[in-house]
Amino acid sequence: QEHVRLTNHAPASSMNVICGRVACAPTNSSARLGSGRSPVSPKRATANLLPELHSRKTGRGSTFVVRASDGTESPTMDYAGALKFLGLSESASSEDMVRAKNQMIARYENQEDKLQKVEAAYDVVLMRSLVKRSQGEVSDNRVKYADVLSPGATVKQNLPPWARDLTTKLPPRPAFETPDNETLTQCGIALGVLTALTLAQGCSQPPGVDNPPGLQLSLALLGSVWLLRKKNLTLSRSISLALLGLSAGAFVGGAVQGWLRVDIVPLGALSSPSALVSEFGLVGIFAASAFLY
Questions:
Q1: pTM for the structure as a whole
Q2: Which of 2, 179, 238, 269 sits CB 3.0–4.6 Å from 228 for a disulfide?
């Protein structure tokens, strides 16, 4: 468990907040959670925290220092840096925050330094959202908090235990990220080579002959899985995302083929429908490799 101290560049009388992964509770000193204390429920913790935050407002220049249970401190992370690291906007709901945190934890499963940074960023974003709420700065109804259950969470809460367990075992949905230059370069080179080979094969086939470019698609899937594995994703998730990209690209390619009908009216030397659809499938595969995790 981690403890978060919120300071406002003030003397020792500044408010200290002990924050856990499940619930937060304000204190008037830097006391630590004792082993004999029972956990605080999210609703009760929020109810206790908001009046204290309201009475001791903090400015936008507040800094958040994350203190681990072993006494060591992680580097200070500001609000903008935490949002950028988690891939969130200022209007993100509590569900978005939790989802982003869980996705980052899954992504950096075996990297302790990254996991500590994820926890620090999540605590910073969560605390700032509570501060803004206590000051009445949040008026967007789309912004939600842990003490206010969404309709989906309410339905899930009313499900039988076996159904709730089943929903927690579902894999997380694909998330978007901005790729780095190295990933874009690798994807661009591989995509250029394979699409050129696919186009050459399609143009070399006489009308009426349509041999799918299976080798190119197989190489693309293998390359995509390799690139996704470099993002510290599991093998099963990497394969799933690669196949998702292929399916999406093939769907778009099929729609284009249905409109152009190159098997009836060749597009120059290209009269192979499978080659045309495969071109879009290759684009989908490497788009998934670069932008999804």
A1: 0.49
A2: 238
